[in-house]
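re: ur msg from earlier - yeah i can do the magnesium ion complex, just paste it... oh wait u already did. ok heres what im feeding in:
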Amino acid sequence: MDSNRSTAETIYVSDAVTTTAKILVVGHFAVGKTTYIGSLSEIAPLRTEEKMTEASAHVDDLKGAPDKVTTTVALDFGRLTLSDELVLYLFGTPGQQRFMQLWEDMARGALGALLLVDPSRLAETFPVIDLVEKYGLEYAIAVNTFDATAEFDEDEIREALDLLPDTPVVYCDARDQTSSARALIALVQHLLTRAA
Ligand SMILES: Nc1nc2c(ncn2[C@@H]2O[C@H](COP(=O)(O)OP(=O)(O)OP(=O)(O)O)[C@@H](O)[C@H]2O)c(=O)[nH]1
Ligand SMILES: [Mg+2]
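and the outut:
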């Protein structure tokens, strides 16, 4: 019985929760969106992974992720209880051009976006920033620490992405829960400042 209760407590949102917010986790192909939501979600994340075939070889550049065999074809979904009263719903949104149609729906009602960036593939982030801005989403940058991160400092990233001075830039390892949570908290703090 106890085990049933603990399962229920994990699956269902606590009665004490008064606020829920929808947050998008966005970024270019293979930047770590599915990994990020998987490391943070307190429920088994919903994933829509499909095997990549040769048909996508010329569109999805595997340069930065040579071992990748699947890609998200719709969305990732996860949930995180941030405090007794606040629950975040995380929606991973693909950055590839062919999924643009999704953004219309995904962006509706979203409070903001965490924009994952691979510092060695900065140019691939430009179209994603365009989308985030097109849909009027407040955002924070989470630099996913792939191996080359040490070569890029925050100022370089800010300049390359032409960020506003108050746009948060945090470093994270999408595979690490604590590190991922820190990035999300930076976004939430930014959103709260903007709302004040
Ligand atoms: N070294 C390292 N590898 C990572 C990190 N985050 C993700 N990866 C790996 O990078 C690859 C791509 O990660 P995904 O989470 O599938 O990326 P995605 O953004 O969801 O990819 P798409 O949905 O296909 O656009 C996977 O093999 C991950 O294991 C990281 O912080 N460091
Ligand atoms: Mg994915």
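cool cool. The longest strand covers residues 19-27. ping me if u need the other ligands too
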